[in-house]
Amino acid sequence: MGSFKDAAHLVRLVILIAAGVLAFLGFRFLAVPAGFGQYGFYRGPALDDIRQRPISFAGRAACETCHTDQHDKLAAGPHKGVHCEACHGPQAQHASDISIKPVLPKTPELCLQCHEAGGAKPKKFPQVVSAEHNSGIDCKTCHQPHSPKEGPA
Amino acid sequence: MHPGVEGFMYPNEFELQWSVLIVLYPFLTGLVAGAFILASLERVFKVDAVKPTYRLALLTALAFLLVAPLPLQLHLGHPERSFEMYVTPHTSSAMAMFGFVYLWYLMVVLLLEIWLDYRKEIVVGAQTDTGWRKWFYKALSLGSYNISERSRRIDDRLGYIITIIGIPSAFLLHGYVGFIFGSIKANPWWSTPLMPVVFLFSAMVSGIAAVLLIYYVLTKWRGQQPDVNCMDTVAKYLFYTFVIDFSLEMLDVLHRVYESEESFRSLDFMVHTRLFFSQIFLQIIVGTLIPLFLLGLNQVIKLPVAVRFRMYITAASLTMIGIFSMRWNVVIGGQLFSKSFLGYTSYKVDFITREGVLAAAGLTILPLFILWFLIELLPPWQEQAKA
Amino acid sequence: MKMTRRYWLVQSSRFLLIGTPATVAFLEAQGDAKKEAAAPDSYRMADHWWAMIVDVEKCIGCGNCVRACAAENHVPDGYYRTWIERYVINDWRNETGEPQVDSPDGGIHGFPPKAIPVSAKAFFVPKMCNHCADSPCTQVCPVGATFVSPDGVVLIDPKYCLGCRYCVQACPYGCRFINPTTNTAEKCTLCYHRITQGLTTACCEACPTAARQLADLKDPKDPIHEFLRNNPVQVLKPHLATGAKLFYHGLDGAVR
């Protein structure tokens, strides 16, 4: 018993450390969030959180369900690859509640965003130097936005 | 446009992510690792000359270790979530290891070693002191008052083993910080296998220099003469460690200049412009070459003690500045250039914000207050007779 | 009471007797929560492996994608989940051989016209998160707040992120930032909330020239398979082996 008496302080220390480890493990079980590790080293419910974020752009298919005439005009001309909201802005609110009226985009600023010649645009892309081409006159005077090759609206 | 930005940077790169607090953190843990290595010189490698600094080195390490997590906490976007690193540590992340390495080093190495070394004084204090000091010593004693010859020998043996475990633990405590930077392949200023080693050796340099300074200042303040043999030996080890540290850093530079790969032109320009003062002037000239000269001279010629001491103190002080600059140059320098290698930004340190100059200065001085408090409670002087 | 060995043994066993069933009970409660989290729906993650194709030759630098992303995802001012860079590369004999690159506000207002020398080559490069399969940013997250989803999208859990900024440092492409309001990391989510509902991403929706196209590598009918077969494709910084899934067509070697 003599040898143990001389190391008694170390035994107390070991008990103290063991108590600390147990307390830590207890805290750990309490603190790991629900669903952690479900799919990988992260909180599984985070995927659901992200999926539930609100949508601002309805998508072209949503517009086409009602606006079939504009869709047909678009599909026949050079703007057939341009989705509706690319010019009209996010319209998810309007698509779910049509009493919300969308604001029509402003030409010529809208048109020039794509078609102003800036030097770095691909050569084959239709672009003009607006000062020379229409010098301030609204693009809609000669080009109908949904079928621009057709002539004025 | 963007003030302080020249050339092209990716649009999300203009502002720095890691501030002066992240410069401070490796500086503080470096002091811890370095001070501990100095203590282990006596305990494990039987360099008896440095014995007068043994207890002081341990207390210094503890004081700085207690403050070390604070700059990290202040810097986090959500400090209240920092417990997550203990609860769900991502084992592929070097940063996740911080919590456990820190706890291990604090509890098992440093606190245990100090406790074992001071147990006789603690027990005596628990039995003879008064007031709150008595309760402090009683708590530390864990209710066991056995300070017989045999128990002291057990303590000594255990302390020896702890110190042996402590040396690689100290390497891990600071080496992993170097690995945090060294393992980032996205950043060519940081990404090098030398980074943990450079961090470690510069840590040892700063720790040894810090203990040298503290020992000198405290001894003088107590009206005594610093032990000449001790000072000479500490300065000698400082010199040797510094030579290794400087060689490693120069190896990195040489390698970069020689290989001259994609990032080199951009980094070279950065070093010569934005980083010139802190890297060339502060870190290399003031912080390394001058101290190396002052220390090295004393290895070849024998100067009078007073002159030697003045040179050591100057060298140690300049070294501290130099090692801080090194941390600055790594952390801040790594964020001043664009990963497109086409542009640079600049770092404006705020003054009173959470991550500003005042916070950094406060966190640097705080360990000294803690050290003063520790010295009061656990005097490192063998012949202490408190009134 | 004297602090004998017996005393400590009794205390420890009391602690264990009470503590063990308590911890077991909490464990079971966590297990129940895990089962509740998985709700059934028609989107199955295992059926998808998302990627993106960008055709540099079609990008006109209009900035529609940057604006659309900002609107869809409420991106804070001055930060960018996607952006466009304009490259002007003079004849290689110039002094540094480096391209001139600019990205005014990420291209969110388009690009002001610029006089470009006839001998120069100029183009736009859209950039965004590459949703790397061997993502270096998820590797370094200390707590598991950012991750690669089972369907190949690199996402961030803003409720768990502690804002340590390590992931921002680790991304070679500069696509991450810290949201100044939430103080958590943020970046392109490949409009995960849209693509899991059968919609395309906001940037692809807004692109007028189909320079950006969402792709699903696990869908046998997806045009990406033919695209990869018939065209030379590039990824950014291939030497870093990030497993980037943002495939560029027509990417010049000078692009950083």
Task: Tell me how many strands of chain A there are.
Answer: 0
User: H/E series of chain A, N to C?
Assistant: HHHHHHHHH
Identify the quaternary structure here. Answer: heterotrimer
Total separate domains of chain A: 3
Number of strands of chain B: 2
What characteristic shape of chain B results from the CA principal axes?
globular
The radius of gyration of chain A is 33 Å
Number of helices of chain B: 14
From the spread of the alpha carbons, the general shape of chain A counts as elongated
Major beta sheet summary of chain A? none
Strand adjacency order, main sheet of chain B: 1-2
Write a compact overview of the structure shown.
The complex is a heterotrimer of chains A (153), B (387) and C (256). Chain B is mainly alpha-helical.
Mind explaining what this structure looks like?
The complex is a heterotrimer of chains A (153), B (387) and C (256). Chain A is mainly α. Chain A has helices at residues 2-6, 8-31, 45-51, 60-64, 68-76, 84-88, 92-96, 109-115, 130-133. Chain A folds into three domains: 2-51; 56-102, no CATH class; 106-153, no CATH class. Chain A has nine helices and no strands. Chain B is mostly helical and 387 residues long. The model of chain B has no long low-confidence stretch (mean pLDDT 92). Chain C is α+β, with helices and mostly antiparallel strands. Chain C has a domain at 45-133 and 187-249: Alpha-Beta Plaits, CATH 3.30.70.20. Chain C has seven helices and eleven strands. Chains in contact: A-B, A-C, B-C. At the A-C interface, helix 2, helix 3 and helix 6 of A face helix 1, helix 2, strand 2, strand 4 and strand 5 of C.
